[in-house]
C-alpha cells in the first residue's frame, strides 16, 4: 500500500497521477487510516515518491493508507506555497510551529466549504436606480454602486416579489466575481443576494447594516477575522471550479433572520447582514 506519512505543504492539495491523468486528493484534514476522497483541485508541482512527508495546517498527520499499490504511482503536491519536504528528525520542530502556522491568513481551515466561501467577492452595494427589463417581464435591471469607478449593471428576477420603487437607493449585498451574463440583451455583471422561504413565494433582498461602507467586502466568521480574508477568486475560477454552486446550498438565514454559512455569520465592519423577516430561509 502506498502511504502519505505526514504533510509539508501549507494549504496543499495532493494529486495522484493515474493512467496519465491527475486525480486530485482531498485537501481537508483527515484522520489516521482514512482514505482521502478525490474531489478537490489544486495548482502547482512538487514530489515523486510513493511516500511523502507533508505538514498540513501546522500539525503532523499520521500515516494515511491509500487504496492502490505504490508501484509506478506519482504524487504531486499542488500549492503556490509549497515548501521542501521535512525530514523525520525535523518533525518535533514542525509541531512546535503549529500555532504560528494556524495564525497565518493563508492557512486553510478545517472547513472546505468555508474556505471556498472565502474566495467569493461578496460586497456591500447601493442601487442607484432600477427599471423593468424591456425584453423580460420577470426581470429588473439595476445600476449598482460597488465603490468602483463605474457602477455595474445587474439583472435580477425580482419583479414578482419586490416593488420597483423600493429598490431605489437601497443598500444590497452583491456577489461580484461571477462571469458577466447576457440576459435578454442586457449584460448582467453580478448578482443581488436574496433570502427566500421554502415555497419561494416570499423573497427579500439581504440587507447590510446601517453604516456599512459601499464596496466593502463581506466575510463569514468572527468580527476580528476581517483582516484574515483571502483574495477573491477570478470569475473564471468561480465558474470552472463551481465555487458558488458548492457554497450556495449552505447559505441560510437563522432563527433571528441573520444570514450565515452554517454557523458562520455574514458580516460587515458595521455589523451583521440580515433578511428583513425571513427565518431559516435559503439564500441565493
Automatic annotation (TrEMBL):
<keyword id="KW-0820">tRNA-binding</keyword>
<feature type="region of interest" description="Disordered">
    <location>
        <begin position="87"/>
        <end position="116"/>
    </location>
</feature>
<keyword id="KW-0694">RNA-binding</keyword>
<dbReference type="InterPro" id="IPR051270">
    <property type="entry name" value="Tyrosine-tRNA_ligase_regulator"/>
</dbReference>
<dbReference type="InterPro" id="IPR012340">
    <property type="entry name" value="NA-bd_OB-fold"/>
</dbReference>
<dbReference type="Pfam" id="PF01588">
    <property type="entry name" value="tRNA_bind"/>
</dbReference>
<feature type="domain" description="TRNA-binding">
    <location>
        <begin position="116"/>
        <end position="219"/>
    </location>
</feature>
<protein>
    <recommendedName>
        <fullName>tRNA-binding domain-containing protein</fullName>
    </recommendedName>
</protein>
<dbReference type="InterPro" id="IPR002547">
    <property type="entry name" value="tRNA-bd_dom"/>
</dbReference>
<dbReference type="GO" id="GO:0000049">
    <property type="term" value="F:tRNA binding"/>
</dbReference>
<feature type="compositionally biased region" description="Polar residues">
    <location>
        <begin position="89"/>
        <end position="110"/>
    </location>
</feature>
